[in-house]
Predict the 3D structure of the following.
Amino acid sequence: MKFPSTRNFFCLEGIDGSGKTTQLELLANALEEKGYKVVKLREPGGAVISEHVRSILLNPAFKGIMDDSTELLLYNAARAQVIAEIILPALENGNIVLADRFAYSTLAYQGYGRGLSLKKVNELTAITCEKCFPELTLILDINAKQSKIRRSHRDETPDRLESEADLFFDKVSEGYKQIAKENPDTVCIFDAMLEKETIHQKILEAVLLRLKP
Ligand code: Z5A
């Protein structure tokens, strides 16, 4: 399904530990050095209500209790709020918006990962994201095994999603590849196992191409 293409709105995607947050920071700094105004946000989250929804979604106490449809709707609810409260005003004020995850996370995790109907996930996305959708999504491709190795270096207790089995992350990873294949004009996929700086330069190049008037 095709979604709107909103100028100056970019998103980083990939499974956990793929390096999204690292690359988002590098990209934001590089753009700011070039004089662009940048607003960064994470999903789920980025606005007060959305952060409250995040704490429900990631709470390990709800593992095995939260229904897949509840999960789908909560991610969309968090997204609807951050779009209205943060993303649209930021774009209207001439900022570049960089999102750490957006609606393709829902397609990859709830659609490909959980096995919910891709059509229904897309239909819901069309409602939630009626007013904006990234003009370019940058996917960091890493397999479930490598992602697990990177995540194992963390001290924190895994959140509800992080404690899913390897098979789940394999499906999510395959989902991202499929999304890239089906949307070659608006999605770029990068090998997340390359050096951080190498990935950064590739991402920066792709974004600067879009920013040219
Ligand atoms: N989720 C969903 O199911 N549906 C949805 O619609 C949305 C989200 C929006 C949010 O988790 C969870 O919600 C997520 C998907 C789900 N769950 N899972 N599982 P989150 O926001 O808490 O976390 P995350 O988005 O998954 O990100 P992360 O775990 O923080 O990882 P990351 O941002 O991709 O990676 P990083 O923090 O930049 O890097 C991880 C480590 O790797 C770090 O030590 C880096 O120094 C290192 N790193 C980074 N790049 C490299 C390279 N190139 N080489 C070597 N090492 C590197």
